[in-house]
Amino acid sequence: MLDRPLTERSQIRKRLPNQRWQIYPQKTDLAQKLAVLTNLSPIISQLLINRGIETPAQAQAFLEPESIVLPSPLEEFPDLAMSVELLQEAIASQSKIAICGDYDADGMTSTALLLRSLRALSAQVDYAIPSRMHEGYGINKRIVEEFHSEGVKLILTVDNGISAYEPIARARELGVKVIVTDHHDIPQQLPPADAILNPKLIAESSPYRGVAGVGVAYILAVCLTQQLGETRGLIQPMLELFTLGTIADLAPLTGVNRRWVKRGLKHLPKSRLPGVQALIQIGGVQAKEAGEQRSRGAGEKNSSKSLKPEDIGFRLGPRINAVGRIGDPQTVIDLLTTDDMGIALTRAMQCEQTNTSRQQMCEEIEQEAIAYVESEFIASLPQDRVLVVVQPEWHHGVIGIVASRLVERYGVPVFIGTYEDAGHIRGSARGIPEFHVFEALEYCRDLLGKFGGHKAAGGFSLPAENLESVRSRLIDFANQCLEPQHLKPLLKIDAQANFDQINQQLFQQLNALHPCGIDNPDPVFWTANVQVIEQQIVGKGHIKVTLAQTINDQQYIIKAIAWRWRDYFPLPQRVDVAYKLRENTFNGNTKIELELLGVRLTTVATQIFYTALPNSLRTTFEYKQRQYTCGIYQNNSLPELRIKNPEGKILVMHPERIIGLLGTSRENAIEVDISQPQYDSIIQAALQALSYINAES
């Protein structure tokens, strides 16, 4: 058979997602036992086990968080009583209070929450948020001295302040009292504030340990209103802002966060806050029936409508965050504190316009960054094990988002920066599970200006002349802690499922795990050896796919979407897929679809095509009462499957091509779509026969 090229349509795809699949071990006996004891299905029980929940008591606490008896936050936070007392005194004496917030979603919702609460309690209160562009994160001496000149007697930091020793010391020098509310890591030296509220200072076992900045603000505001006996009409709006900020800040949805967010998601659709109403309207968010199955009893349904965390994470949160990244945070504060629907809609539209600009900016910078990486660093990436990407005229308000996308694409830690001026670089960093970003920055301490962060992310600045030295130092650090196998994004998978199991009933059962988010991820399933029967690019580089699985001679078909997978188009004809379940409602019809998170060549095919020795796999098999021969052959160093029928016609296919050849030789062969059932069925039969030979060899 002559070697002739196939048409462009049949060329090998560039690549598949570069991933490590980590599939949880299936504890079938334990799952069955837990299912019986809790009246849950075995698949839900397995998902709970994957999340460290193995007893009925743990399951009840997780599934019914309202059943937990919480300790009083006054007992958990040592300085909470003092903080309430300082605020009470300031309100009673009508002393000026000033809030110093932050420009991310957590900081802005925290600021709005305390502004609304304190104003409702008749406090004299105002706020300030440092400039992202000109001052960076956290309270500073300028803000402190400005507050003092305006007659402020009490400063309240939200989502910042725990590391601001000098600014807070300056406030104390000026006779201004300070309450620090923050959730960031504890520095070696605490600031000299009058009171400090930070969940990192309390016991790790506390249910309050995982609250974000907005959670600390919520606890303080609730305790204050309770102390003053003024809770009516205040708690629900505060809970809604807590829910927005907690999800948008990617705080863990465990402990009190899970309890309060679950409650808040039910309140948001009927919010009386004009700003929340306007955001929901502009964001196109629709509340859906909660449809939660009770963990005990006969499976009665709760018909109340609720939002899901992804509504905030992907719709509302980005519109808030975009303003903090490239706009004026006052827009969001006005949005979330106004009682005027007209103002709220105007501010929500401004958020929408800013978010559109942010999306465009991210897309442009991402494409420029990819082009730069592909031309300068791609060859050395396996040896470098880290990317340091710096270019002029990138907006540092969005480069953190781009860093996350580059981590997803290349599977290595990413340090990305831009020039503030000719002599200074400012940047963001994002890591992978085996790499500690803050420790990496510490390793470069003598070469950097300001820096901070935690295990997964960080920010930094440096003199431009130190760029190459920082790059070399980071490569050295990465090679100390990363092995080649780490350089693939980790995809954690809960359980295997077949397409005949995917239905509305399973989707409703999964509601028992909601709200899902950080530390309680959406369940991820995988299905082996599915057929890609249709695929097309839609929107901004997404792949819309129709998948099929044949079980006991019956074909099950399901639609799927793969976000931002343009580079992997077209997908191979046979793959294993990993996915989340999602609802898609169109023209009043709701269907369950897949959101693809991972895809790999089907395991059987991979073993046969890529681990067999050349010319070692040959066999005969029977298909529909006819005898065929088949084998794996090398063609231009690429393995291909050839199947020969009794008449001498040969079908040729490669696992990464979507078109095969059919004929007695390559000269007279025609191109055929091997996804068609008549070809796919015989290919699967041949692979099955070869798999037996491969297993024995």
TrEMBL record:
<dbReference type="InterPro" id="IPR041122">
    <property type="entry name" value="RecJ_OB"/>
</dbReference>
<dbReference type="InterPro" id="IPR004610">
    <property type="entry name" value="RecJ"/>
</dbReference>
<feature type="domain" description="DDH">
    <location>
        <begin position="96"/>
        <end position="246"/>
    </location>
</feature>
<dbReference type="Pfam" id="PF17768">
    <property type="entry name" value="RecJ_OB"/>
</dbReference>
<protein>
    <recommendedName>
        <fullName>Single-stranded-DNA-specific exonuclease RecJ</fullName>
    </recommendedName>
</protein>
<keyword id="KW-0540">Nuclease</keyword>
<feature type="compositionally biased region" description="Basic and acidic residues">
    <location>
        <begin position="289"/>
        <end position="310"/>
    </location>
</feature>
<feature type="domain" description="RecJ OB">
    <location>
        <begin position="493"/>
        <end position="596"/>
    </location>
</feature>
<dbReference type="Pfam" id="PF02272">
    <property type="entry name" value="DHHA1"/>
</dbReference>
<dbReference type="GO" id="GO:0006310">
    <property type="term" value="P:DNA recombination"/>
</dbReference>
<dbReference type="GO" id="GO:0008409">
    <property type="term" value="F:5'-3' exonuclease activity"/>
</dbReference>
<keyword id="KW-0269">Exonuclease</keyword>
<dbReference type="InterPro" id="IPR001667">
    <property type="entry name" value="DDH_dom"/>
</dbReference>
<dbReference type="InterPro" id="IPR003156">
    <property type="entry name" value="DHHA1_dom"/>
</dbReference>
<dbReference type="Pfam" id="PF01368">
    <property type="entry name" value="DHH"/>
</dbReference>
<dbReference type="InterPro" id="IPR038763">
    <property type="entry name" value="DHH_sf"/>
</dbReference>
<keyword id="KW-0378">Hydrolase</keyword>
<comment type="similarity">
    <text>Belongs to the RecJ family.</text>
</comment>
<feature type="domain" description="DHHA1">
    <location>
        <begin position="385"/>
        <end position="479"/>
    </location>
</feature>
<feature type="region of interest" description="Disordered">
    <location>
        <begin position="287"/>
        <end position="310"/>
    </location>
</feature>
<dbReference type="InterPro" id="IPR051673">
    <property type="entry name" value="SSDNA_exonuclease_RecJ"/>
</dbReference>
<dbReference type="GO" id="GO:0006281">
    <property type="term" value="P:DNA repair"/>
</dbReference>
<dbReference type="GO" id="GO:0003676">
    <property type="term" value="F:nucleic acid binding"/>
</dbReference>
